[in-house]
Amino acid sequence: xxxxxxxxxxxxxKVGWEDAANNAVKEASKSIKNIASLYxxxxxxxxxxxxxxEYRTNVKITFEVKR
Length: 67
Description:
Distance between the termini: 11 Å
Mean pLDDT: 95
Radius of gyration: 14 Å
Shape: elongated
């Protein structure tokens, strides 16, 4: 039986939500091994002068714990 853990990460990007999700995986993979999946829980954006200036995403990353 595999043991899986889930961590919640907030990430951002100036480019878009997909890039923010990629940034979450990139940063998480620096300290977490065996990442199996990503669940985008929530998306938001910062607006300034009628333009989106920052994309934000709240993701859950699932990884397998090796024994």
